[in-house]
Amino acid sequence: VVLHLSGTWSNGNVVIIKAPNNAGAAAGNRKLTIAANVGGGQTIDGENSIELESDNAAVTLIYGSDNWNIV
């Protein structure tokens, strides 16, 4: 599954994302990919995307200066 962080964002916006309880290897590797708006020049800590690969994995992102940062 891919979650695209497209749309209009303001500095300081926070997004909290949690993978489902069947994201890990035991459940068939249903990882959650979080993709920045690469066409708009955005990244997530310098990467085009990140992956949550473990059951119930979570990440908090904050938007600033046209990029996402992992908190």
Describe this structure in words.
There is one protein chain. This protein is mostly beta strands and 71 residues long. Helix content is 0%, strand content 38%. The protein has a three-stranded mixed beta sheet, with no helix packed on it. The radius of gyration is 12 Å and the shape is elongated. The model has no long low-confidence stretch (mean pLDDT 91).
Question: Can you give me a brief rundown of this structure?
Answer:
By secondary structure, the protein is mostly beta strands. It contains no helices and six strands.
How many H/I helical runs? Answer: 0
Q: Calculate the terminal CA-CA distance, rounded to whole Å.
A: 22 Å
The stretches of 5 or more residues where confidence is low (pLDDT under 50) are: none
Structural class: mainly beta
Task: Give a quick set of tags describing it.
6 strands; single chain; mainly beta; about 70 residues; three-stranded antiparallel beta sheet
Topology:
Elements: E1 2-4, E2 14-18, E3 32-35, E4 49-52, E5 58-64, E6 67-70
Parallel strand pairs: 1-3
Antiparallel strand pairs: 2-5, 3-4, 5-6
